Amino acid sequence: MSNPHIEFQAPGTDLDKLIHPYPAIRAMPEWYRQMPVESQGHDTVKRCMPFLDAMTSGYIIPLQVDVKISLSESGLNLQFTPFKPPQVAPVQVHVQEQFPGAPFPQMPAIKFNSPWVIRTPPGYSTLFVAPMNRFAVPIMPLSGIVDTDTFALEVTFPALCLLQRGDSVELPRGTPLVQAIPFRRDTWTSGAAPLDGAAHESHQAEAAANHRFYRDRYWQKKSFT
């Protein structure tokens, strides 16, 4: 059985002009690369496999143009380098009327227009989130799921602007914008049950003997290429 394949599509005449999406493992931030694996006798998050798996799952969709975002008392100002494709503006102010009652009334919303049509095999959707465990950019894309096996239009990415009044930020072309994680749709059931005491006790003993036991015994490598 072949591995599932995700495809990022754009008109053939535009492909050479675009920065293509790429595996998230290639976007590890410099602070993570520079972090030691141990500090004052403790393992750091560099040895935490759940932390690493979150950062390296899926694909990064990068920003296609230089963007400057400024927030003044009079409102939000967006500047970006001229760019074709796409024909629409790469970033726009998002209308607040689409968020009535949402708990972020003071945060201006913007929308990034992506040039990519994203296709996955039948039965697979794609989760779009802000690049996980990355904090350098004061822009927070809102999470969403698109059934990319049936939807054949470009996906847009609404985001919240976290700037304070009077501040601005410049986002260079290529900035990691969104993390796209494909997954297979399944019908799940749920329930509560008594603890598996034997398994729990066994894992407690393993943890006491080796604090890296999850990485060494139970962690499974994930692959996105």
List segments where confidence is low: pLDDT < 50 over at least 5 consecutive residues.
Answer: none
Q: What distance separates the N and C termini?
A: 17 Å
- Fraction of residues in helix: 10-25%
Number of helices: 4
Record field, number of beta strands: 15
- The pLDDT mean sits at 92
Secondary-structure element order, N to C: EEHEEHEEEEEEEEEEEHH
Q: Output the structural class.
A: alpha+beta
Our estimate of the beta-strand percent is 25-35%
Keywords:
32% strand, alpha+beta, 14% helix, single chain
What does this structure look like?
The protein is of the alpha+beta class. It has 4 helices and 15 strands. The strands form 4 sheets. Strands 1, 8, 9, 11 and 13 form a 5-stranded antiparallel β-sheet that branches. It has a 5-stranded antiparallel β-sheet with strand order 2-5-15-10-12, with no helix packed on it.
